[in-house]
């Protein structure tokens, strides 16, 4: 469309397979046939989409956490130091136990939010809680998985450094942690 311009691509910490760019609209005319929904009703449409977008993010994070956990357990079992697999050291075993517990809580809350959403019940509180919890927890678990891999984790050989970089978007995109807390606070009558 005349007036639509992509100014420049933005370099990012993660999510590099999904380009992000500055775009501008100068006197762009939208034909009636291209209108989505009603004229001036765009914001309402965007708002209506938020619950599903946040649920998708939570589901994605739950999947990422499981993959990271499997990777951490497998490496803890394989890597030996001081004559035994590192997973046999209590420090590592306890760390993985905590990671598994947090992943399980994240999954349970996300499934509950999904259940409410799909059965048409009020779900904003649980969806916001799931988004808030899963995005921070996925980042935490990605970082812990990197730590368990030691120096290898920091290299690009294992893909874990990418998981850390990609997970960092979670607490920002789709509404920040602070905004989620505002929404949850309002649902609690505050
Ligand atoms: C890689 C990437 C992809 C994206 N993709 C999309 C997309 O596809 N579609 C889309 O619509 N958007 C997309 N976004 C935008 C994203 O949703 C916003 O960046 C995000 O919602 C935060 O808004 P902001 O950047 O304007 O931050 P700001 O609103 O400027 O916030 C800055 C800081 O202030 C805090 N803050 C703001 N308001 C409050 C408040 N009321 N109380 C307390 N703290 C507050 C924030 O939490 C944050 O820490 C994308 C962003 C990135 C980085």
CATH architecture: Up-down Bundle
Structural class: mainly alpha
Shape label: flat
- In terms of DSSP E residues, the strand content is 5-15%
Q: What does the main sheet amount to? A: 2 strands, antiparallel
What is the terminal-to-terminal distance? 45 Å
Poorly predicted regions: none
Which CATH C-level class is it? Answer: Mainly Alpha
- How are the strands ordered across the major sheet? 1-2
Q: Would you tell me the overall average pLDDT?
A: 96
- State Rg: 21 Å
CATH fold node name: Butyryl-CoA Dehydrogenase, subunit A, domain 3
Number of strands: 4
CATH superfamily: Butyryl-CoA Dehydrogenase, subunit A, domain 3
Notable features of this structure?
single chain, 190 residues, mainly alpha, Butyryl-CoA Dehydrogenase, subunit A, domain 3, two-stranded antiparallel ribbon, two-stranded antiparallel sheet, 4 strands, 8% strand, flat, binds flavin-adenine dinucleotide
Explained architecture:
- With 190 residues, this protein is mainly α.
- The protein has a single domain, classed as Butyryl-CoA Dehydrogenase, subunit A, domain 3, CATH 1.20.140.
- The chain is built from 6 helices and 4 strands.
- The strands form 2 sheets. Strands 1-2 form a two-stranded antiparallel sheet. It has a two-stranded antiparallel ribbon with strand order 3-4.
- Strand 3 and strand 4 (84-85) form a beta hairpin.
- Helix 1 runs parallel beside helix 3, helix 2 runs antiparallel to helix 3 and helix 3 (124-148) runs antiparallel to helix 6.
- The longest helix has 37 residues, at 42-78.
- The model has no long low-confidence stretch (mean pLDDT 96).
- The structure holds flavin-adenine dinucleotide (FAD).
- Flavin-adenine dinucleotide (FAD) is lined by residues 12, 15, 20, 169, 172-176, 178-179, 182.
- Residues 12, 15, 20, 169, 172-176, 178-179, 182 line the site of flavin-adenine dinucleotide.
């Amino acid at each position: 469309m005349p007036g639509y311009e992509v100014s420049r691509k933005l370099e990012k910490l993660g999510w590099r397979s999904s380009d992000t760019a500055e775009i501008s609209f100068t006197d762009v005319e939208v034909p009636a046939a291209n209108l989505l929904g009603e004229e001036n009703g765009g914001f309402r449409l965007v708002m209506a989409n938020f619950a599903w977008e946040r649920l998708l993010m939570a589901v994605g994070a739950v999947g990422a956490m499981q993959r990271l956990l499997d990777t951490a357990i497998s490496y803890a079992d394989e890597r030996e130091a001081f004559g035994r697999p590192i997973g046999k050291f209590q420090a590592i075993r306890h760390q993985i136990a905590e990671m598994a517990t947090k992943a399980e809580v994240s999954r349970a809350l996300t499934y509950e939010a999904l259940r409410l959403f799909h059965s048409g019940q009020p779900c904003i509180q649980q969806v916001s809680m799931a988004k808030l919890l899963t995005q921070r927890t996925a980042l935490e678990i990605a970082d812990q998985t990197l730590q368990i891999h030691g120096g290898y984790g920091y290299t690009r050989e294992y893909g874990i450094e990418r998981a850390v970089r990609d997970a960092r978007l979670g607490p920002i995109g789709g509404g920040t942690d602070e905004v989620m807390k505002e929404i949850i606070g309002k649902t609690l009558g505050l």
